[in-house]
Amino acid sequence: MLPDKAPDEDVFCGSADLKRDAHVASFEKYKELYMKSIETPDEFWGDIAKDFFWKTKHSGQFLDYNFDVTKGKIFVKCMEGATTNICYNLLDRNVHDRKLGDRVAFFWEGNDPGDDLTVTYRELLQRVCQFANVLKSQGVKKGDRVSIYMPMVLELVVAMLACVRIGAVHSIVFAGFSAESLCERILDSDCSLLVTADGFYRGDKLINLKLLADEALQKCRDKGLLINRCIVLKHLSKEPEEILGSQSPPTKRSCPDLQVPWNPDVDLCWHALLRGASDECEPEWCESEDPLFILYTSGSTGKPKGVLHTVSGYMLYTATTFKLVFDHQPDDVYWCTADIGWITGHSYITYGPLANGATSVLFEGLPTFPNESRMWEIVDKYRVTKLYTAPTAIRLLMKFGSEPVKKYKRESLKILGTVGEPINPEAWQWYYNVVGDKRCPIVDTFWQTETGGHVLTPLPAATPLKPGSATFPFFGVVPAILNESGEELEGPSEGYLVFKQPWPGVMRTVYGNQPRFETIYFKKFPGYYVTGDGCRRDKDGYYWITGRIDDMLNVSGHLLSTAEVESALVEHKAVAEAAVVGRPHPVKGESLYCFVSLTNGVTFTCTLEAELKKQVREKIGAIATPDYIQNAPGLPKTRSGKIMRRLLRKIACNEHDLGDISTLADSSVVQQLFQNRCSTAV
Q: Which of 435, 520, 573, 665 measures 20 to 30 Å from 169, CA to CA?
């Protein structure tokens, strides 16, 4: 239940100016709307749905579901009988019905200062229709899966919305992932076509993306899946003017010497295909529960999970959370610094903002390139009003002090947001005091790839803020805290965070694997959606996320599976067994601390350590590169053979208070591991 009143010791609750025009202007108004959303959800969401275009209306109840595995198949259905098209609602509706065609949809800011592009809603609609016609010319049809492996360029948004326009299902793979990770995702979703780019700069580092894409496609062929079409955007390499035509030229920091492998039997040039393509394309009208996209997130078994989201519920939920959590106003310039390869970019760069007719910044670069003031330079350049970033980025920028921030005015900022992991109070205070000049509320949002949008979050003009707390549930979301026995805990308590009923944007299944979906999210506590996170509720009813309970790590705001990293390590012939745990990191939140037991006769050397790091990087991606690899002649195990990860975390942190070790089979292993700790680990 929500508290009767807001606590007295609030940190900030919005200025009078913010409250005056806010969509939800007080805590009392929030409570009133929240109770309506859980007591009469059909009415609550039905009113919101009236703002969107429906080819046919839904019939029956708004949400139908079963969360209890003991009662049969888990399912969630939203607005059955309705048909629509999300691309139409994001673009055509804004251009034609709302007369926003000349409004800027995106300010694209490239890796290098001065490399920028502005696109209006009308121009974006034309580009999307053109590429939708290109996809149709390549035989892509409703229900087909299309893999997209691109940097943060405008064409990434164009490609995903073009898929949506024709009813195809996009599967976007983060451009920082390896060829092996791309191959695995293409195979799992049985994609028929790949869209990629020649390359991109990440800071000063040149990434030959096409080379990685070719390697992934060859791995797919080796495993029996033949993909004979790959559309390649010339982002850096030179393309003749007659091919480019009226389309955007390569980035100003072009790289004409970039060696791009080209197979004329497979590869198709993006710009050449667009030549002559019509900028009109009738949308494919889709059922509410038709698949919209697949996005892979790490799984505790080591095999990524293809999270499947569907049409109507996801559209309504991302649009509503964006509007209310960021209190979107018509004159806002909004900037989410995430990558579209992650769910934050899907929901809060593309779908949520465009559904509201928002003007957004789309950023290709790094927050510290070419210097540590880049973010604040961009804020002033575009007069950003709402900024949404990760605690990792905040902690990174904190290292440089306040001077790089204070060089820029930032007077346009009104609301700050955080995403990806709980923000520690020190970073919250710096963000609030230095970046926001003590006048911008911080919306600290908790959600997951699986939830589709924010589930625990403040509303900026309504919620009294406590640094580090995700505060209260969003509309339609009913949280509970359970103990190990599955009993609901009341009042101040700590345990498993679960949700008691669905909201429109919750995932529908793991693609191609319904049993895995039910086992991961619903088997442990029948009748509840299990987040996998621990949670604490304080005396005022505020929720505090305490971290992952399962074998997952949160590195720089991105979930990584310990099993996935361990699998990559043991593929090396020198490694017999591996165990991976998280170790606190001042910037990334968690770092990867790896224990490896070597095969007989192998010696642990710096060369071997470098090889193992390289192997993980190539198998998963740079984000999974281990920070520490420790030689472990033995691992602490129970008498039944289970690795005691709790002890490994203690060893990684050099904490000698081990607690109860009565179930440990061989206590001498622990002492040896302490002696072998990495010399670089404090």
A: 520
What are the CA-CA distances from residue 555 to residues 128, 233, 391, 482, 626 (Å)? 34, 30, 11, 26, 11
Residue 526 has φ and ψ, to the nearest 5°, of -55, 135
For residue 615, tell me if it sits in a domain.
Answer: yes
Q: Indicate the pLDDT class of residue 246, thresholds 50, 70 and 90.
A: very low
Phi, psi values for residue 454, rounded to 5°: -60, 135
Query: 606 lies in a domain?
Result: yes
SS3 364: coil
Strands of 257-298, DSSP E: 267-269, 286-287, 291-297
- Final residue of a structural domain among 283, 300, 325: 283
Contact by Cβ (8 Å): 300, 561 = yes
User: By C-alpha distance, which of 575, 592, 582, 599 is closest to 629?
Assistant: 592
> In this prediction, what percent of the chain has a pLDDT beyond 90?
73
Non-local (6+) Cβ contacts of 342 within 8 A are 174, 295, 449, 558
Which residues, 6+ apart, have CB-to-CB distance to 150 below 8 Å? 156, 159, 172, 175, 195, 196, 197, 209, 233
Reply yes or no on whether the pLDDT at 583 is more than 70.
yes
Spatial CA neighbour of 363 closest among 336, 384, 392, 323: 336
Q: CA–CA separation, 624 vs 564, rounded Å?
A: 9
Task: State the pTM of this model.
Answer: 0.86
Between CA 552 and CA 544 the distance in angstroms is 18
Domain around 586: 552-675
Determine which helix (DSSP H) or strand (DSSP E) holds 630, and give its type and residue range: strand 628-631
Rounded Cα–Cα distance for residues 165 and 286 (Å)? 10
- One-letter amino acid of 402: S
Q: Which CATH number belongs to the domain containing residue 107 in this structure?
A: 3.40.50.12780
Number of domains in the chain: 2
Q: What is the CATH classification number for the domain harbouring 605?
A: 3.30.300.30
